[in-house]
Design a protein that fits this description.
Structural class of chain A: alpha+beta
Strand order of the largest sheet of chain A: 1-2-6-7-10-13-14-15-17
Largest sheet of chain B: 4 strands, antiparallel
Oligomer: heterodimer
Number of helices of chain A: 9
Helix content of chain B: 10-25%
Number of domains of chain A: 1
CATH topology of one domain in chain B: mini-chromosome maintenance (MCM) complex, domain 2
CATH class of chain A: Alpha Beta
CATH architecture of chain A: Roll
Number of strands of chain B: 8
Strand order of the largest sheet of chain B: 2-1-7-6
Radius of gyration of chain A: 24 Å
CATH topology of chain A: T-fold
Shape of chain B: elongated
CATH architecture of one domain in chain B: Sandwich
Shape of chain A: globular
Helix content of chain A: 25-40%
Strand content of chain A: 25-35%
Distance between the termini of chain A: 78 Å
Strand content of chain B: 25-35%
CATH superfamily of one domain in chain B: N-utilization substance G protein NusG, insert domain
Structural class of chain B: alpha+beta
Amino acid sequence: MRRFISITLALNLLLSLTACFGPPVDPDTVQESIQVIAMDTAMLISTYGKRSTAAAYASEDLIRDLEAQLSRTEEDSEVSRLNAADGRPTEVGPDLAALLTAAEEYRADTGGAFDITVAPVVSAWGFTEDSFRVPAQAELETLLEKVDGSAVRVERTAGGCTAALAPGQSADLGGIAKGYAADKLADLFREYEIPRAIATLGGNVLAWGDRPDGTAWRVGVQDPARPDEQNGFVGILNLKNSFAVTSGGYQRYFEEDGRTYHHIIDPATGYPADSDLTSVTVVAEVLPPDAEQLYGPGTMCDALSTALFVMGREQALNFWTSRKNAFDLVLVTKDGEIYVTGGIAEDFVFDEESGYAYPVLVK
Amino acid sequence: MRTRSWSSKPNGWDALVVLAVIALALGSALAVWGGGGESGEALTAVVIIDGKEADRFSPADLLEGPRTYSNGSYTLEAAYGLRGAESAPLDHEPPSGEAGVRVAWADCPTQDCVRTGLITRSGQSIVCLPGRIIIRLEGGAPDGGIVDAVVG
């Protein structure tokens, strides 16, 4: 009996010692990070919680799967087959069907400022292959005749979905696919019961839940005037359960004969958008799951950030005023002004050392 | 019933049990101390090419010479760097600073990896998009950056 007691006491000692040295680990703070190069950008996904590792690997699979369907450079992808079909219907999976439907909604909504069929014009400028050139006006006019997203057809069939472009058209989903991927990541995090996560997909951020210390995720809005500077921000957005996407001409551009040409092509002119903005950030909250919804706020943020950059300050703010509750904006203008819309006024912390005038609050 | 074996005098077995348990307890404690997260580990550079780990080394290993990595038709050279050593006085003291990795040159058109400059903290990375190469730092002091993510 005495020996039994001594072993019990010793085991207690052992347990209490390990308890002292190993503070209880909160399963919600266990973290896994993965970095993926996909969809022409670098992605970093950090998940937390008991199933963080499984969720991180599932996230990578999800992104690779989407890339395989949507790539314009892989000959066998659904998008490549759609583009090569020269107007004939091709079979498409639910993701491409949803993306084409979303693209048409935002094209119509923005008066054509966002249009996936502008792809051949973007390629003519060399932004698809990184072989930059200034196309001749005649070449642009010929290409512009085929730019018309309203011609894209998506139909449900007995076996699934088919889609067709107009003959001679081609589509590029690069301006909307990362946002759609962010929407799907939100669904995945929900399915894996991930309490918190932060995902950066190129210029797209999904801030899921809150930080391990209970505060909001801090998302820096890059200063368009200092694109290569780490911590070169116009301000910081404090976000929980939100998507944020930035578009700006500074992200990709080339110079020729002393002029700068950026990558956001205005579907109306075929030229880089002559915008008075240098960057547009669109923010929207994660919505509760809805089985009817094919795509979500992440997709919207991605499409609108491009469209509102093309529109310019005045039209962008009018657009926001007519749809206030759906999203919020941070606009940076060429004149060094910052506009922040009402819903995120308290979440945006301006960097006073950035050299910009104090942000204008738009209500 | 014989009661002699339950004498109150500790015997060799008791001592052995106590010793074994103390050894176990100390071992567990050390394991917890030693494994207390990434901060206890040395800073390590991990090179990922096409999603697969291709190399793993301490930044100091680059003092023996830079390392080159290729994928597709692109090549880059990773070299040793010291943060804070740029302003070292011109004397005979060896330069001191935060050790890290930078890309000294690359043959890609974008040069984003070269422009990223020196990385010295856990969690920081250099990305070569055309070559699908990532150099990422793990272990050591975490990135003391002021944000969790960046849009732009």
